[in-house]
Each structure stands twice: as structure tokens, then as C-alpha cells.
UniProtKB/TrEMBL annotation:
It holds the Pfam family Curlin_rpt. This is Curlin associated repeat-containing protein. One of its GO terms (biological process) is cell adhesion. Residues 45-74 are annotated as: Disordered. It comes from Donghicola tyrosinivorans.
């Protein structure tokens, strides 16, 4: 049985403003379509996820033990010897915590196959929490690892300036052995729910969208225009597709696609952040996932992880602007990374594991840095 529901709450001409509309929606059977349009401030579709289901990305710095000694260097072109110094490394680490993510919280929900949602929100501080597909529990992973480092020689008695010796991979490996971890959790069955479509548009500032699609051959299309907007998208199953676009300043995007999926992600503006994970929960059964990212602006940061022993994964990143950073980790044979950065003071940091891997990097501008590890 097919059902169609239209919901609208807007600002009528000459009428009082429509504030804080709330939509609770649940469909448990049949083929359903929801067309939703909300205009105003503080509108919500579905309730927020429980506190223990949030996903957070944190970073910090760990300093290795200092070693002291004497060294040689030059000052003003003249050799200087017997300089007392301390050598140490600052290791930058990142921890991603994505804890249990049950789909039975009070999100707006469609359970089953071939459902459709078209949602539009105009205004500020709006929220959308929507779940499509299997009505099951999905759990994720927690991990911590070193992502960068800087080896420093700190000279004493004012005899010379401190000298940076660049990245210290041995110190990063020591950090990972001592503090790094990856812990995965059972996800439960993700079956039977296929062919769902979710289309979300949000216009304004401080909006948030949480999207879960559990099953195969699902499609999500997200558009956010404004500042300080946040998107949290999870797709679990095979052959799903995500297109997400953010326009503005200070936006954030967290994307997790489990198994074999495709993502097209775009951010236009400054000071945006993006975190992408593709692969199976245990990292062994996924293959041939692909992500293509485009950013246009300054001081944007991208983190991409692709896991899966079967390989065939692809990362393509195009960045235009200054002070941008890309961190990528990729596993699986016959996988590849393609990067284009156009601007000044940009950075690309890539780690590839397994064999038959390819990397193509093009940087246009000044002050760019490339760090590549293949093992």
C-alpha cells in the first residue's frame, strides 16, 4: 500500500510568525512518501538522538621524552659547534568516538522499502533527525591514532633559534603502540530495507541534520546553506549513494558509510570541517568504496578513512583556497588517492596500507607540504 503525506508550516503574509514547529512522524509498513516544508525558527523533525549516541572528533598533542646533547649548526652562514640542546617531538593525535547509535529513538522514521522523503526547512536553529530502512540497532567504533608530528631541537642559552626537523614517524609509531587503539562493536543485522530516498534542504544558520539509512541501494541528498550548520549522515548497507553540499562558514559534516558505497561531498566557504569513514565495521568485507570531495575556501579541514581488505577504494579531493588540510588513511589493494590543491600553505597527509596502491598529487601555490606513508 502506498501513502503520501504533506506537511507544511510557513510564514503567511500578514500573519504572526510561525516559530518552533515540531513534527513527529513514524511509518512502519507500506511504501510511503513524506513531503515536508517548515519555515521559521527552531523547527524540528524528530527528536534528538540520545546523549550517548553522539559522534565526536577530538584532537590533542603528546610530547615525547626529551633527549639532551650537543649539536652543530650554522648561524649567519658560519658554523657553530657545541650547542647544548634538547630534542623532543610533538605528536598530534586524533580520537573519533562514535558510540551506540540505536534507530529506535524518537527520530522521524520510515521502516521498509522504497520510501520517499522530501524535507525543506527555512530559518535558523532548525533540526532534522530522520531514520530510514531497517528498524535495528547499529553500533560503531572508537579509535585513536597519531596523525602528525614535529621534531624540534630546542637550543639553550640563546645561542640559536629552535629548529624544526619535520615529521617524526618513529615517535608517531611509539604513540600508537602506547596510546593508539581501534575498538569495534557488533552492529546487528541490516537487512531487507532497500531503495529508500531522503532529500533534505536547510536554509539558514545553526541548523542540524541527522540522517540514518540502514539497508541497500539507498540514496540521500543533503543541502545546507548558511553558517555553523552540522550534518551527521550514516548509511549502512551495500550500494548506497550520498550527495551532500554545504555553503557558508563554520559548517561541519560527519559521514559514515559501511560496506560498499559512494559519496559526493562539497563545501563552499571558510573554516569548514569534514570527517568521512567508508568501509565495513570490521574492515575486512568492504570493497570498492569511493568518495569525491570538493572544497572552495580557506582554512578547511578534511579527514578521510577508507577500510576494507578487498580493496578497489578511491579518494578524490579538489581544494581551492589557502591554509587547507587533508588527512587520509586508505587500506585495501589496488586503491588510489588523487589530490588537487590550488592555493598557499596547504597540506596533504596520506597513509596507505596493502599493495598495488596509487597516489597522484598536484599542488599549485606556495608553502605546500605533502606527507606520504605507504606500508
Amino acid at each position: 500500500m502506498s501513502k503520501t503525506l504533506y506537511v507544511a508550516a510557513a510564514l503567511a503574509l500578514g500573519a504572526a510568525p510561525a516559530f518552533a514547529n515540531s513534527v513527529t512522524y513514524s511509518s512502519q509498513e507500506g511504501v510511503n512518501s513524506l513531503y515536508l516544508q517548515l519555515q521559521g525558527t527552531g523547527n524540528s523533525v524528530g527528536s534528538e538522538a540520545p546523549a550517548n549516541s553522539s559522534a565526536a572528533q577530538t584532537t590533542g598533542t603528546w610530547q615525547s621524552e626529551k633527549s639532551k646533547g650537543f649539536g652543530n649548526t650554522t648561524m649567519d652562514g658560519r658554523p657553530v659547534t657545541d650547542l647544548r640542546y634538547f630534542a623532543y617531538t610533538n605528536v598530534t593525535w586524533a580520537q573519533t568516538a562514535t558510540s551506540s547509535y540505536p534507530t529506535d529513538y524518537s527520530a522521524a522514521k520510515q521502516v521498509g522499502d522504497n520510501n520517499r522523503v522530501n524535507a525543506i526547512q527555512h530559518g535558523n536553529r532548525n533540526a532534522l533527525n530522520f531514520s530510514q530502512g531497517s528498524d535495528t540497532v547499529f553500533e560503531e567504533t572508537i579509535s585513536r591514532a597519531a596523525i602528525d608530528s614535529d621534531r624540534v631541537m630546542d637550543f639553550k642559552h640563546g645561542q640559536a633559534d629552535d629548529i624544526s626537523l619535520g615529521r617524526d614517524l618513529a615517535a608517531e609509531a611509539a604513540y600508537d603502540r602506547q596510546f593508539g587503539f581501534t575498538q569495534t562493536f557488533s552492529r546487528g543485522a541490516v537487512t531487507t530495507a532497500t531503495g529508500n530516498l531522503l532529500d533534505v534542504d536547510q536554509y539558514g544558520d545553526d541548523n542540524g541534520a541527522v540522517i540514518n539509512q540502514l539497508g541497500d541501494y539507498n540514496v540521500a541528498d543533503l543541502y545546507q546553506s548558511g553558517g555553523n550548520n552540522q550534518a551527521d549522515v550514516l548509511q549502512a548497507g551495500d550500494s548506497s549513494y550520498l550527495e551532500a553540499n554545504q555553503i557558508g562558514v563554520g559548517n561541519g559534516m560527519l559521514v559514515r558509510q559501511y560496506s560498499t558505497n559512494t559519496a559526493m561531498l562539497n563545501q563552499w566557504g571558510n573554516d569548514n570541517f569534514m570527517e568521512v569513514y567508508q568501509g565495513d565495521v570490521n574492515g575486512t568485507t568492504a570493497n570498492a568504496s569511493s568518495v569525491e570531495v570538493t572544497t572552495d575556501g580557506n582554512e578547511n579541514t578534511i579527514h578521510i578513512t577508507q577500510n576494507g581488505d578487498f580493496g578497489g577504494n578511491s579518494i578524490i579531493v579538489n581544494q581551492n583556497g589557502d591554509g587547507n588540510e587533508v588527512f587520509s588513511t586508505q587500506s585495501g589493494r589496488n586503491s588510489g588517492i588523487t589530490l588537487l590543491q590550488d592555493g598557499s600553505n596547504n597540506m596533504f597527509n596520506a597513509v596507505q596500507t596493502s599493495n598495488m596502491r596509487q597516489v597522484a598529487v598536484a599542488m599549485y601555490g606556495t608553502g605546500g607540504n605533502v606527507y606520504l606513508t605507504q606500508r
